[in-house]
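Suppose a classmate hands you a notebook page containing two proteins, each written out with its sequence and a corresponding row of structure tokens. How would you begin to make sense of it? This section walks through that situation. The first entry is reproduced here exactly as it would appear on such a page.
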Amino acid sequence: MSRVGKKPVPVPAGATAKVEGQKVSVKGAKGELTFTVPDDVSVAFEGGQIKVDPRSQTKQARAMWGMSRAMINNLVVGATKGYERKLEITGVGYRAAVAGKHLQLALGFSHDVNYPIPAGVTITTPKPTEIMVAGADKRQVGQVAAEIRAYRGPEPYKGKGVRYEGEYIFRKEGKKK
């Protein structure tokens, strides 16, 4: 039995949830998000909570049960509070700045990297060496942060590059002469 799936998802005040067949939509202060629940799982909105149950006891249905509950919880949290990821830039001359609808990154290449900011995500640079990615959709916020990090991931010798806040970089020792 799924320990995650058993718990109903509470819908807080200030947010509205709607269940139409297999489609769940949540509207809150940060926006409106939708998720289509797989056919192996039934979903119902009762008493201010969204309840998820498997239609059968197959392995696939039980796996989808916990995943669906987690996805619906992500919708509720994203629509009410939102999600954010913080990236840190380390390296001499490495910096970031928001210019219009693009994030301009100087990462040691011969040219600056211009990353177009997608709709539904806001990117800010409180310092030239910090990037804040925020939005309502957890998957989209994580994907944008991963794409920015992929331009110049942290290297193991000096630790230069773009990394997540609090990420530990295993440092290597250089060759000895």
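The notebook's second entry, a different protein, reads as follows.
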Amino acid sequence: MTVKHNILVVEDERDIAQLIRLHLQDLGCSVTLAHDGIVGLSEAESKPFDLIILDLMLPGLGGLDICRRLRGRAQYTPILMLTSKSSELDRVLGLELGADDYLTKPFSVMELLARVKALFRRMGEFSAGNSTNQIPGRIHIGDITLDSEQRVVTVRGRESQLTAKEFDLLSHFAQNPSRVFTREQLLNAVWGYSYAGYDHTVNSHINRLRGKIEANPDQPEYIHTIWGVGYKFYYADNNGHAQ
């Protein structure tokens, strides 16, 4: 039996909201609409959703503020952010606050549905008890401890505040130590599918992740650049033994 996903769409442009709802319903999803930020936040906090599609520019309360509030809760819900702004700063801000993905308006319905499916695949693999992609409860590598159940990372004994994508990226590396990944492979594994021309997304996330887990980001001990290829996650202790 197919599981019906419950999705909250917070979008003040009613025509766009209705269009999104119609196509998500075609996928078998149950869709709740909210047309301003205050109502959207209230809906998000009133009951669990499998996904929140969140516009950046909203009356009452902006999408970034809603994202910040939701990421302050213990319950984790994927967020796909919509924005009519094209600047890199707006997209990075959303990702820094914990949005899992974003689309810039105008977007195609096919791309929206592809990203929704990708988010569901990733969350399904994370939560499925028999998934080959599920990581152990805890992973210890060097001074880093990664708790997959609580989605918490501690570095040198202190909790590091990672965004959702940064956590997923670090988890993927931790499951595959010493393996070299191209940017395209990381996009496919962490973001759900390849984004043509979005290699800079990987670069920016790697840089921010290094800033949070490395003692000296300019001389990384964990995430190493393999020039001309991509990146690998590798740590050697004081005796030169790999972990």
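A careful reader of the second entry would note: DSSP finds eight helices and twelve strands in the chain.
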